[in-house]
Amino acid sequence: MINLFKIASRNLFRYKRRTLLTLGLIVIGVVSVAVFVSVTDSFKNMMIGQITDSYIGHLQVHRKGYIAAIETLPLNMNLKARAYGKIENVLKDTPGVEAYAPRIKLGGMFSNFTETTNIRLNGVDPEKEALTSPLLMSRVLEGEKAIRKGAILVPELLARGMKVKVGDLVVIIATNKDGSVNGKQFEVGGILEGVTGPGGRDGYVHIDDAADLLRMEEPEVSEIAVRVKDFSRLRSLFADIEGRLAQEKNPAGQPAFEVHTWETLSPFYNIARMIDLMTIFIKIMLVAIVLVSIMNVMIMAVYERVREIGTIAAMGTPPRRILSLFLVEGFLLGAIGAIVGALLSVGIVFILNLSKITFDFGRQTDLLLSARLNPADLIAVVGIVIVVAVAASLQPSFKAARMDPIRALGHV
Amino acid sequence: MALIVAQDLKKTFRTGDVSTEALRGVSFSIEEGAFVSFIGPSGSGKTTLLNLIGCLDKPSSGKLLVAGMEVTSLNGTDAALFRGKHIGFIFQSFNLIPVLTVFENIEYPLVMVQNVPADRRREAVEKLLEAVGMTDQRGKKPDQLSGGQKQRVAIARALVTNPDLVLADEPTANLDRDTAMTIIRLMKAIRDKLRTTFVFSTHDARIINEVESVYRLEDGILKPGDGGI
Predict the structure, then answer these.
(1) pTM score over 0.80
(2) For B2-222, which CATH superfamily applies?
């Protein structure tokens, strides 16, 4: 086998320019795919991290039908204490759950005593929210990075429009589920940076203040945000939690709760899917490059060595051995190109990260591009190239193996 | 003991509606250790006959035994295995592999055909390099050799598998007279030493005197009185 590789590698370099050109094409293809995948994946993962860690959470649990009506933030679809207790028991009993946080979501009027506008608010438990949405406080642009009772974190666009700053007093007016209106005065505790997606421009208050504002006689929550320990296991954990909660039925005999992953809650999921589609498309292009270039080289190699094939066949080389010889040549072309391309990609990604490239996305500016090459992705790209290289060599190799020695020896 | 026995060998080539009889009932017998040449003008059927003996082609009819094996019924793979075990080839244009050195060219059949371990390969190649006088040239590539040197390497390559039979199609056609004579004498000396049967085709009258038996072919027929039965 070693001798086969030795002979095959010598054969490859008998036409140095052609081999180097083919290798160059493969290297460019591999680098393009690997760098594209690393950059887009990093962008995607960063955005998903931003979205999940700064406000959505990885999963959310609601009362059945809440998400369909979320635009109106319906208070009559809140979870009562008993329902919350059941969900809490399931979450506590699920080892993959890192943290969870109850939220009261409400719509109200925001007044600076001279102007009034509408606002969407989240009433949160600061400690639980910090564990579930660890990046929430990093969005505080000014003021205190905390949610204390009597204070409100105001979204930056609203703060700018209403000309309020940290320390100002504002009033929030809200209608509770019974239709009675109540108002409560808050101090602006901080200005919150907006992020892309629904809920990305909500204000935050303490959960007790929200309950007080809505004059809740008993504790209620609108949603429970959940953070999982291992994001890569989100789907299985989602299925597990959903399955266990599905046992709880409402009076209509349907599941009482609904569970959603961030994917169904954020429109960024569509962008993430588009990125995945583009990745597949660019991989198909890589396959085409490798297929065409290697097939071309191998067809030429067979055509140029017809007499030689006749000679080795006449000497008694079994057809399968001739087949192997040419397949190994294709394999080597693919493997060398893929490995060189992979190493180059690692270097380029390293330089990209050293360059500290920033970009803007939506209202978020100066996001640092931190490209990361996933070893599994790199191995997959190398694997694809090698498999396609061998596949592209099959037809020419079979042709060589089936060649009639007499015709081959007589070839001019 | 006869190494090759041919009985009423016929070979007809067809191109569309046209058929050409290259061999028209050839019978002969060649003993082990013989040094035999088939001579005749171009188109007389020499190469066709050598191709049949070498199991590169099949006759249209007739019987052919090589090393005790009826070779006309062998399929492609079995014929390849048979050639690898029993037959060595020397070609008119030497047909050395350009990317391999002299040593590696001689070693090639042991690697690709017989899968012989490295130490035994080295030993066999060293012995043949010495036999053909190419020890000093072992590291050279074919393009660094003269025609005579290339043919010496080709002879060594044909012999490295220790075959029963070496077939050489016009082995001296691309060589000058002196080199041609040297090559024929070298082949004969090796035959004397190893007792390998040499069968070659030629229309080179210069070397006929060096051959022990001559079979004359004309229009696909073996002419009587020249060793044919």
Answers:
(1) no
(2) P-loop containing nucleotide triphosphate hydrolases (3.40.50.300)
